[in-house]
Amino acid sequence: MNDKIKSQATPLVQSIQRRKVITSVLGGAVASALPGTLWAQSSSFPNKPIRVLLGFPAGGSIDGVFRVMARAAGNYLGQPVVVENRPGAGGTISIVQMKNSAPDGYTLGLITMGVFRAPVIDKVAYDPLKDITYIISLTHVPFGIVVLNDAPWKTWEELLAFGKANADKINYGVAAGLGNSAHLLMEEVTGQEKTRWTPIPYKGSADTAQALLGGHVHFVVDGSGGFGPLVDSGRARLLAVASEQRSPRWPDVRTTKELGYQMTIDSPWGLGGPKDMDPQAVKAIHDAFKKSLDDEDVKATMLRNGQGIRYRSSEDFQQFAVRAAVDERALLTKYGFDKKD
User: Which of 151, 191, 219, 321 is the most exposed place for a label (fewest CB within 10 A)?
Assistant: First the structure.
């Protein structure tokens, strides 16, 4: 009897044991596959094009350089980096659109010093420290003071003398609105010289250049991407560069520091995204754009535009943002550009 019972039970026990083994194997397979699946999904970034919103019209100081960088970085990422120009409101439109995008790494924004200045000047729908993930700082834009080549002023001293004698008549063009680097530079200069000239704001470098060529302004203060082609073609003359050291692109032109002014402009720019971005997406984008800085076409384009590398890692760029938010508020308040609540 016992043997019969044993004989009848054996297939049942074996069946149960087989099911346990299968369940154990499948459970282990699912458990081991799950992290791998999640990792694979994360590590596959990007699996579609990345778009970068620029708050300026095409053809400006940043646009041309960044497009070359974007092509190089896209090669490293394995997906194209698409540049979309979204000018308006001093560049804040693009930042707000970026902020409101999903933090998946597929919508980014170009970060300039204007990102920190706009909230001081006006009410904007973003906070530069709470709403942005800082990914990488890339390069910077040198600014210059430029007149038409046939203008009667051959030097800065001649332009200054004319400006002091005709303070109520002289005006100058600045790109990307009031309160930007170019405008602040001239506020410092005219304040030191105890005179005051009228700034005329334009949307971008292309509009500013047309204003100069059309004789609508006496001179312009703009980034190298805007004034560089005019100077290189002989249509305009560069009177000064607003930097600590002379530009390697225009080594014969004096700096504002050499001219006796304390204010210089180092206007770095880089990439950011919405807050709470996936750290692996941040790393992938950072690494690709860092590699792009060594690309020969990128280096040649930066040199042609008078730009130099201002690389900062994601962590360093975040720390820079914290300092810039404080410093720019102090600078804008000094000149009365802070919004009055």
Answer: 191
Instruction: Give CA–CA dist 55/113, Å, rounded.
Output: 12
261 lies in some domain: no
- CA dist 245 and 221 (Å) reads 17
Pairwise CA distance, residues 341 & 333, whole Å: 13
Share of the chain above pLDDT 70, in %: 87
The two three-digit tokens of residue 48, written as one number: 């579609």
Q: Which of 3-17, 96-110, 188-202, 265-279 has the lowest mean pLDDT?
A: 3-17
| Domain membership of residue 229 as a residue range | 143-241
Pairing of strands 143-148, 219-223: antiparallel
How far apart, in whole angstroms, are the C-alpha atoms of residue 152 and residue 79? 51
Does a structural domain hold residue 307? yes
pLDDT band at 172 (very low <50, low <70, confident <90, very high): very high
The 3-state DSSP class for residue 103 equals coil
Supply 243's token pair.
């930097």
Alpha-carbon distance values, 57 to 64, 151, 261, 288, 299 (Å): 11, 27, 31, 25, 23
Dist. CA 304–CA 300, nearest whole Å: 6
Q: Are strands 50-54 and 107-111 parallel, antiparallel or unpaired?
A: parallel
pTM confidence score: 0.76
**In a shared domain, residues 127 and 71:** yes
In 3D space, the residue among 180, 176, 171, 257 whose CA is nearest the CA of residue 215 turns out to be 171
Asked whether the predicted pLDDT for residue 249 surpasses 80, the reply is: yes
Total domains, the chain: 2
Alpha carbons 244 and 303: distance in angstroms, whole number: 17
pLDDT tens for each residue of 145-167: 999 999 999 999 999 999 999 99
137 plus 156 within the same structural domain: no
Q: How far is CA 219 from CA 50, 216, 275, in A?
A: 38, 9, 40
